[in-house]
Amino acid sequence: MITPSNLEKWQKAIQGIEAGQKDLSSEELSAYNTLKELFNSGNFEASGSGGNIQIIKNALPNLSKNRLLRAHLTNFVALCEEIFTNKSVPVTQPQVQTPAPVPPPEIKPQAQQETPAPVPQPATPAPTFGGIPSEDIAAWQKAVQGIESVQKDLSSEELSAFQALKNLFNNGNFEASGSGGYIKIIKDALPSHSKHRLLQIVHLPNFIKLCEKYFKVKQDAVIEPTPTVVPPPVVPPNTDTQTTVPAFQPPVFQPPATKQPETKVEIPKVEPPKVEPPKVENPPLPKQEPEKPKKSNLKLILIVVAIVLLIGGWQVYDNWNVWFGKPNEITLDKSSLSFENIGESEQLTATLFPDDIPKRNREIIWQSSDTLVATVDENGVITAVTSGSAVITAFTVNELSVSCFVTVKDIEIALGDTLLSVSDTIVDMVETSVQEVEKVTPKTATKKDVKEPTKSQQKESTNQKLITKTYPFGKYDGYGLDGYPEGQGTMYYSKRVQIAKHSEGTYFAEEGDTYVGLWGNGDIVNGKLMDKNNKLKATILAGKRPQLYDISKD
């Protein structure tokens, strides 16, 4: 019985291994893919599962450079040993011819000696994954994911320090000499992120706390030079030379010079004639009242503007989430569902946090990983279509997501001497609607155009197998039929190429891009194109090609 907690651990281990699968050998990768396929198909009693588990178990000591990958593989092996019933592969020992038995010599019986009481052994400590506890690894992943989701708010210096610490942690290099400086850069930048409270209060402090816990070099030591004081030179007095005292000379007094008497010459005064100006009577000037100073209203205007800005700023701050907020978390009321009957429906409810975000940012997009097994509408109502398993995912407007694992059981009905499955009965009822389904494209489809899957589609779904195929422009991992992509799958692009040429729009995938979605007849049907930073680049609704197509010609 698989519990929801085991399923969540399994999904985290799968994501971690696939992120670092380039460090696995071909034998280890083959064993990992085999165990993953057996788990997804529910075949927990496969005879070869024990050997594949042992291959991955033997490879753990070789992954000392990538300690995070070793931790994910350790969790993967622990879950496989817990779930798969065939724990190990029986080994046949070669037959060795033993010589004839030699009779033992006769030994006289001795007095029985009391056996000492067994010494209690100390309890072995709980295992850790790569030297790091599992709860610290989970906390590290949450902090890194939180910082990468808002890394546009970091400066170039902070982003460089964050990337360097992340690489050192993943490689297990906890004694790097520059780690202390990187930690100090991020620590000093915390007050500058007051606008992004989640980054300032949660993600960056958790990241710094884990770095200070595991990195041995906390910060670069700075040795300040001691100042050297040079005393001024002291020149001793020169006793050899004799100081000469200047001789005193008395001042010379000179008698004052006698002044000669000046001769005064009298100049006669000539008085000019008096000229009287004509009298002009000026008219009296009107009395002017002094101008009163005008009162300035500038101070009053500034005071009113300041009050309005304070009130408006407070309103914006107090209602920021109500007007502009986006969800920072999404949860589902159920993590897994199981349907006993085909055609049965059940409501799945998603909850967004915080609850005061505006209505336009509360939209939830529902998606099914396999619509041939289970479908979901825009309200989260899941309907069982045929037997199998699928993953129902809910997305927010800012690309947060949460998933629910759905299982649809196949019920057999006895009709006389013949056993018929309910899924085959439903297929026969809707076989006549094949042509109408193929005429409907994703852009023109309406609710009345949606039909039940046909019998041929059901057979294609059961014949699909997990494949890995290499193309000139990338690598495909997912379900396939006769060597061509068919069903859910992912394409990792290694060079620029035009994709989904049969769609009405024009789409180009660049190096490092990833397409995740549904495939049919060897080409893209509908899904999402993500860039190398795992951000949504385009949503493609191309529809299924009418005939098989080889995309290697692109």
Describe this structure in words.
With 554 residues, the chain is α+β, with helices and mostly antiparallel strands. Among the domains are: 4-83; 134-214, no CATH class; 330-448, Sandwich (Immunoglobulin-like); 464-553, no CATH class. The chain contains 13 helices and 19 strands. It has helices at 4-19, 26-41, 49-59, 67-83, 134-149, 156-170, 179-188, 197-214, 298-318, 320-324, 422-429, 434-439, 455-463, and strands at residues 329-332, 336-339, 345-347, 350-353, 365-368, 374-376, 381-384, 388-395, 401-408, 412-415, 418-421, 465-471, 474-481, 484-493, 497-499, 507-509, 514-520, 523-530, 536-541. Strands 12-13-14-17-18-19 form a six-stranded antiparallel beta sheet. Strands 2-9-8-5 form a four-stranded mixed beta sheet, with no helix packed on it. Helix 2 (26-41) packs across helix 3 (49-59), helix 3 (49-59) packs antiparallel against helix 4 (67-83) and helix 6 (156-170) packs across helix 7. The protein is elongated, with a radius of gyration of 45 Å. The protein starts with a helix and ends in a 13-residue tail after the last strand.
